[in-house]
Records
---
Amino acid sequence: MSDKRMTADDVVARLRSGMTIGIGGWGSRRKPMALIRAILRSDLRDLTIVSYGGADVGLLCAAGRVKKVVFGFVSLDSIPLDPHFRAARQRGEVEVAEYDEGMLMWGLYAAGIRMPFLPTRAGLGSDVMTVNPGLKTVADPYGDEVFAAMPALKLDAALVHMNRADMHGNSQFLGPDLYFDDLMCMAAEDSYVSCEQIVPTEELTADAHPSTLRISRLLVSGVVEAPRGAHFTSCAPDYGRDEAFQRAYVNAAKDPAAWDEFSTVYLTGTEDDYQRAVARFDTQEAMA
């Protein structure tokens, strides 16, 4: 078995402008933010992003790296809408394909099992069919029902963040929900996993049920050890969402000068620079 360990910058070096990239996690939960920050340090652009979105989508939109977003929602959980994504949509800067959450899952699954589409009742009778005029329906060949035909969402690459992985890419979640990170990896030509900790293979199931080991090394092209790599989203049980920092992110988005300062402090340096700046932020919050 091969050693697939690499750095976040190594991952980004394998990506190309114009790619369709799936980003795992859910809203403001277990997002691969260290990998997103590495993209922000690169010159990648014209990306199509597929995501149950949160600040991952917002940051990429704010940096002008996004051509199109395919999404079920873009939310920060405790704050309903990501401000940068909302602003990008209001300015008409990004193309969008907004699906029912179940349709998005079904599209990833279709790509994962190499099907061109899968039938679903999700979306029928709603404006999803109206705002996505390319969606078609399909008749039940055994009955009279008509279904939405959700097309496969094929990804050039998937980026996900997990709690633990081994150096071969076997990856594990320890929180309450896998979200659809396994489907993101199944739907992608290449999948890259960042994780809180890379451990020996035998440790993955020494203190956790084998069912938590849901992403196989067979799906993974590279694995990156990135402690606190989901910050400021949550990565249960390792840490919760940083609500104070998330509010600072949203407040900074309200004013161009404040956003320039936020970007300078948190987004222009290395990942180590980011984590040190967050530590200073935490200290200031504790003293306030």
---
Amino acid sequence: MRADFPALQQNVHGRPLVYLDNAATTQKPRSVIEALVHYYERDNSNVHRGVHALSERATAAYESARERVRAFLNAAQREEIVFTRGTTESINLVAQSFLRPRLTPGDEILITGMEHHSNIVPWQLLCEQTGAVLKVVPITDDGELVYAEFERLLNRRTRLLGVVQVSNALGTVNPVARMIKAAHAQDVPVLVDGAQAVAHLPVDVRALDADFYAFSSHKIFGPTGLGVLYAKRRLLEDMPPYQGGGDMILTVSFERSTWNALPYKFEAGTPHIAGAVGLGAALDYLESVGLPGIAAHEHALLDYATDAVRTVKGLRLIGTANEKAGILSFVMDGVHPHDIGTIVDAEGVAIRTGHHCAMPVMERFGVPATARASFALYNTRADVDALVHALHRVNQLFAN
């Protein structure tokens, strides 16, 4: 499988690359790269309204990608799939277009203590604009939600629940289906941040009954700069446009404008056409491998890695939940995570260091940053062994 990924066929600092920074972004299979090249070499044009052959081919490719995403998520209709610039923009769209008109002072927005900044800051901005209040479900020392607190904080004042399916900083898999059911019992809509889930777990938005589901193309082997917002059609129908411009309108005059049909009402301006084409190819690749098999492989690899890194002197895992997916965050006694990252890079191993856009998680565990190894379908036990070897090298250098 590694042979399918050109970027993995290289040496870094004289050693074969071991890429364990997949939670930041994934490498791209050759089929995705070839789809992008094919698009730009043959079909490059603007979509919709063009009557020439290239525009019609570009439109067909773009809309085919939308249908591919619909099938991947098991959404009911293609009109429920909105292309955005990424998970961040998808969440901001929901915040400003769906929730803002519905908020009054004192209303509450409920999130969890393990959210990425992209599922915190948009709600903070909204609270400043409306007088609403942000409530946060705490997490345990293992990195799991305190479910009893979730149930206590979910109340008649809650106007939306925003929850991450898989934590990018801890790897925790949250019980989103159970949480959605509890929220809906109180008529609370739910947005699921699926950025770290879609490449690792089968997702079925209808089985989840999620009202909104957001993810980014580059986390799932597709191009950067493209995201997806799934939303139930009846919700999108009632939402005003998020941005104004070309393609999102039906008519324009100086007196008033009217809006295009779904999903184009939310896709102002020329979209990331090539990005959508690449995402479609990425989903084809992913499903050719099979998500259930990928999940089983990554789960076994995570178990192996968890045991292996525990042999490293002074290493402490941050996030030890029972349900995890593909992420190991850790600190080492007397070594700053940035130094860990630099030293293992010299050994050819790419990991991420820092707060991972989850500063409240760092504060919760009393650390300024962590080192994070994150796995994808192409990683192997040999990659884990290389990481552990490099971490022993860290200890050797800091012992001198």
